[in-house]
Design brief:
41% of the residues lie in helices and 22% in strands. By secondary structure, it is α/β, with parallel strands linked by helices. Strands 1, 2, 3, 4, 5, 6, 7 and 8 form an 8-stranded mixed beta sheet that branches. The structure holds S-adenosylmethionine.
Length: 272
Amino acid sequence: MNTEALSDAGSYKFGKFEKNAEELARLKLQATVAIDLEREVWKNSGLKPGMNVLDVACGPGFTACELAKTVEHGTVTGVDINEELIFVAHQAKTAEKVQNVSFQAGNLYDLNLPENSFDFVYARFVFQHLEKPDVALSNIRKVLKPGGILCVLDIDDNWTSFSPESAAFVSFIRKSGAGQKRKGGNRLIGSQLFEKLNKAGFKNVSTKIHPITTETLGVRMFLGVAVLFRLEFLTKLQKLIFMPQLLKIKKASESPDAWGSLGIFVTTGTKD
Ligand SMILES: C[S@@+](CC[C@H](N)C(=O)[O-])C[C@H]1O[C@@H](n2cnc3c(N)ncnc32)[C@H](O)[C@@H]1O
């Protein structure tokens, strides 16, 4: 797959970011920082040892390696549209010494995988970037075995907050959300997944919200991993205009009173 195919990557075109190396480091942190909570999510969603798992839009593969350890004698296939990230994923496999994971380039809009072949499909932080989530859901449903489970983990900006300097923070969240929307994304996807999975024909659909606060992540990590990378979605002019507010938020984050939260939305559904 060449970089042309990145046109289907919606609002996430790794390689075209201003700071790609920093973004990769952020993805790694984001994959590890709440891994205990994520393992709990997998268990509650029905993930079991022995399952054949597909990690769609697996990015650099850190999470797929964790999934592989969890399914033990099962297998994990990681697929991503971005070949650069698939290369990193192969390195992660070697570094983590996991045998039961494989990676390949692939597009959620044209999944070149056998139908009815996976017990569990995981989609982590990708639906917020997709221009055509309904096409992706229909393709995922095809590759699931009857009785198989889809688990989508994503975000919803209506559940993101920070204080002090709430007004500056809310303005940043709104502007970067609008910027992501211009690039094809949707930062309000979390609360829409319940309807989307139902409409795509999934059964037993359920959405749960897992709050993450600065008390668990720490203020610096919260702002770095979950918030400030969104500068990427502002235009150059907006970045300049927004700089004073950004400085206010950074200063506020040094206050002992600083507190923030976000909601991780987990939607599951099964195939008949
Ligand atoms: C924010 S990253 C998340 C990566 C990984 N799931 C994680 O949580 O670390 C979004 C990923 O979606 C991938 N992606 C975007 N559109 C895609 C598509 N149409 N098909 C497959 N992957 C896609 C991007 O290349 C990127 O790796």
